[in-house]
Amino acid sequence: MLIEIRDERPDDIATVREVNRRAFGQEQESNIVDALRTNGGVLLSLVAIMDDRAIGHIIYSPVSVGDMVKGAALGPMAVLPEHQRQGIGSKLVEAGNRKMKDAGYPFIIVVGHAEYYPRFGFRPASQYGIKCEWDLPDDVFMVRILDLAKMQGVYGLAKYRDEFSTVC
To answer: DSSP per residue over the chain, as a string?
Structure first.
């Protein structure tokens, strides 16, 4: 199985919408991705391509902690149900996280499965004094620190873009 991870292109938009809708079984994540794209809220959007079609997608958007530091929020990340548990999501996360680190972002925040994201270096954000703006269990709100020096003394409320709270 040959998988290519590449930047999203304009002709991927409809397929990315379908990937998110099918992976999550609802429209909300697709609507958030569309709103981020429309409102200039995308730092990075990657697709996993197999046989010339998108079967997976990951997006990163700006997030801030307090008034101190700007970082990246990972998500949503989606893989078509028939291609899940084959390492495609891992390839997307690894490629995206590497690009965020190379771009100089000091941290990445994710709301996700507590058993999945720690393999990529994510830890509960509360361990670093970072809180979520939404009421979530501690183990699903995680952070991966990419630059320890830039994160010294950084703590407080993580603020996502408005699309995450206003789009349904």
So the answer is: ---EEEE--GGGHHHHHHHHHHHHTSSHHHHHHHHHHHTT--SEEEEEEETTEEEEEEEEEEEEETTTEEEEEEEEEEE-GGGTTSSHHHHHHHHHHHHHHHTT-SEEEEE--TTTGGGGT-EEGGGGTEEESS---GGGEEEEES-HHHHTT--EEEE--THHHH--
